[in-house]
Amino acid sequence: MNINRIYFVTGNPYKLAEVVAILSEGPRLPFELQAVQLELPELQAQPEEISRQKCRLAAEQLQGPVLVEDTSLCCTALNGLPGPYIKWFMEKLEFEGFLRMLEGFEDKSATFQCVFAFAPGPGSEPVTFVGRLPGRIVAPRGPSGSKWGDLSRLFELEGYGRTYAEMDEATLRAVSHRSRALALVREYLLTL
Ligand SMILES: O=c1[nH]c(=O)c2ncn([C@@H]3O[C@H](COP(=O)(O)OP(=O)(O)OP(=O)(O)O)[C@@H](O)[C@H]3O)c2[nH]1
Ligand SMILES: [Mg+2]
């Protein structure tokens, strides 16, 4: 396939910076990654389908190869909710309300899930890549005002005893849901 530039489409500058940083490590990809700041509609569906829909819209709008990503936070006690709607839950409930929602449940386990979707152009069925990070929801710990907001202070990574906000960048980059998914994206892009 003759691709020399892929658009990474997101409205979130932190997500963009992280994707660029992770992809710039390791073997060099034979494509230029070009950031496009665009807020795409996220239609109601299962996480992988939300990403595929974002990807189809982006490929249509930009008429070229596109990569998008959507992050979910899935609570076991809530059968996977809020999932892809976590952004709106945090905006409307703030962290106190979110914690209250889980108060009645003993099981506080949760998973960060990241779904990338890639399409070589409009009209192509997007391919998806999933990365997961297990943990649990805890009372907030770590600096407030960090780039991912309060959610990062509520999620404690399994096996680390530290919240997302308390982790150092290098360790996170090695283990995060986004890094795990991007390892699969890289593997796929290298086959094109
Ligand atoms: O603690 C965190 N560590 C992370 O690594 C992380 N990645 C995303 N998020 C948050 O989860 C929601 C997903 O929303 P999301 O995937 O739709 O992102 P977005 O709307 O900001 O950008 P985009 O959809 O334009 O790409 C948003 O509230 C993000 O702030 C994270 N929180
Ligand atoms: Mg979004």
TrEMBL record:
Catalyzed reactions: ITP + H2O = IMP + diphosphate + H(+); N(6)-hydroxy-dATP + H2O = N(6)-hydroxy-dAMP + diphosphate + H(+); dITP + H2O = dIMP + diphosphate + H(+); XTP + H2O = XMP + diphosphate + H(+)
Its EC number(s): 3.6.1.66
Main localization of the protein described in the UniProt heading: cytoplasm
Matching SUPFAM superfamilies: ITPase-like (SSF52972)
InterPro entries for this protein: Ig-like_dom, ITPase, ITPase-like_fam, RdgB/HAM1
Cofactor: Mg(2+); Mn(2+)
Keyword list, A-Z: Cytoplasm, Hydrolase, Magnesium, Manganese, Metal-binding, Nucleotide metabolism, Nucleotide-binding
Record bears the keyword Cytoplasm: yes
Transmembrane residue ranges: none
Intracellular or extracellular location(s): Cytoplasm
Gene Ontology molecular function terms on file: dITP diphosphatase activity; ITP diphosphatase activity; metal ion binding; nucleotide binding; XTP diphosphatase activity
Binding site for ITP: T10, G11, N12, P13, Y14, K15, K54, D70, T71, H177, R178
Cofactor note: Binds 1 divalent metal cation per subunit; can use either Mg(2+) or Mn(2+).
Biological process, per Gene Ontology: deoxyribonucleoside triphosphate catabolic process; nucleotide metabolic process
GO cellular component, one term: cytoplasm
Domain Ig-like: 41-114
Principal EC category: hydrolase
Function: Pyrophosphatase that hydrolyzes the non-canonical purine nucleotides inosine triphosphate (ITP), deoxyinosine triphosphate (dITP) as well as 2'-deoxy-N-6-hydroxylaminopurine triphosphate (dHAPTP) and xanthosine 5'-triphosphate (XTP) to their respective monophosphate derivatives. The enzyme does not distinguish between the deoxy- and ribose forms. Probably excludes non-canonical purines from RNA and DNA precursor pools, thus preventing their incorporation into RNA and DNA and avoiding chromosomal lesions. Pyrophosphatase that hydrolyzes non-canonical purine nucleotides such as inosine triphosphate (ITP), deoxyinosine triphosphate (dITP) or xanthosine 5'-triphosphate (XTP) to their respective monophosphate derivatives. The enzyme does not distinguish between the deoxy- and ribose forms. Probably excludes non-canonical purines from RNA and DNA precursor pools, thus preventing their incorporation into RNA and DNA and avoiding chromosomal lesions.
Assigned protein family: Belongs to the HAM1 NTPase family.
Subunit structure comment from the entry: Homodimer.
Protein name: Inosine triphosphate pyrophosphatase
